[in-house]
Amino acid sequence: MTGAVSRSQDSGIIMRASFPFIISALGLTQIISWGTIFYGISVLAKPMMAELGWSFTFIFAGFSLSLLVGGIVSKPVARLIQRRGGRFTLTLGSLVGGAGLLMLSQVNDPVVYIAAWIVLGLASRLTLYDAAFATLVEIYGMQARRPISVLTLFGGLASSIFWPICHYANEAIGWRGAWMVCALAVLVVCTPLHLMLPRFGVPIGGSDGNGAAGPDPEPLVPADRRSFAVLMLTIAMAANSFITTALSVHLIPAVVAMGMGAAMAVWISSLRGVFQTLGRLAEILWGRNLDPFLFANISTGVMVIAFVPLAVGGVGVPYFFAFNVLFGISVGLATIVKGAVPLVLFGKHGYAGVLASIATPGLIVTAAAPTAYAAVLDAFGPVFGFVLLFLVALISFSATVALAWKFRRGPV
């Protein structure tokens, strides 16, 4: 009987550890986690301001603080992942995130509001991409590049799904009810799915979850030359994240201020997530053997090109649509760069720590993005704001070019 029970338990573990389950579970939890912790404030900030009487700057200062907290705790969270594994870390993050979102739904006092964002800053490091990517590397090793790419297909839909959800929830039950919907989604859906992931120290092997993984390829960047590569990736990702963060929060208000209707701005902006996913799908279909340095150049170069339609036609519908297409593709590809390229360049050993080294300065810099960009919009207007972001995009592209120039080899 004991043997039968053991075989039944083993069968259940294998079923839950299958590639489709792992990717689907992490994909759904990434949609919910990003959609609630990161994107919800974009839609719910204005109704909160109207009821609470707080300034636009203060509302987004809380969000900026969460990014700063995320940067501060990145390395401790990386050590937690390496010590306790992704299953424990992600599950803990769901509980912390749900608590922070419930706090937001009940705020009346500025101190409680700030405390809620501190909690959510910790939750973001415990649950978002870096933790999920590290979990996939824990499970699949150097074969994790494909699972990472597939996972990003899901995450790219977060804004497209949760901007409308938050909008209509606010219309139906108010902003407090909308935050409660977000909290329940994290607690009721994400927590059990994270608990069903493979236990720490149980590698599955192979990027499709079937059979053992092949021998690990050598990292492209030797250990003694890692510092420059990490620095260039840090600059590129920090600049890219500054743009993404600023526009995730302020894109809709900025284009409305330039004359676009609010409803049209919401729906066109929401399409960005679709094109993030399409860009990632293209990478999965055709970019598997693409030189990682060229791939990084493409992802940051598309961001530069994205601003051209706005320069030509302003916020006319076709031009704003073209901007969102290119912007979405770039953001989608940049997420894969952040997750998969460090694995190819540096290897699986200490992967979570490398991600933390790249993420920490970027998160601290981008923590200022929502508040700083709000100040730019207030002082100089949205046109100057877009020019500034174009210059930041050039910095990101230049860093990936420098990386390619220093280390590029043949396709991998």
Automatic annotation (TrEMBL):
Keywords: Membrane, Transmembrane, Transmembrane helix. It holds the Pfam family MFS_1. It comes from the Bacteria. GO terms for molecular function: transmembrane transporter activity. Gene3D superfamilies: MFS general substrate transporter like domains. The chain crosses the membrane at residues 21-41, 53-73, 85-105, 111-136, 148-165, 177-197, 228-245, 251-271, 292-312, 318-341, 353-377, 383-405. This is MFS transporter. It comes from Phreatobacter cathodiphilus.
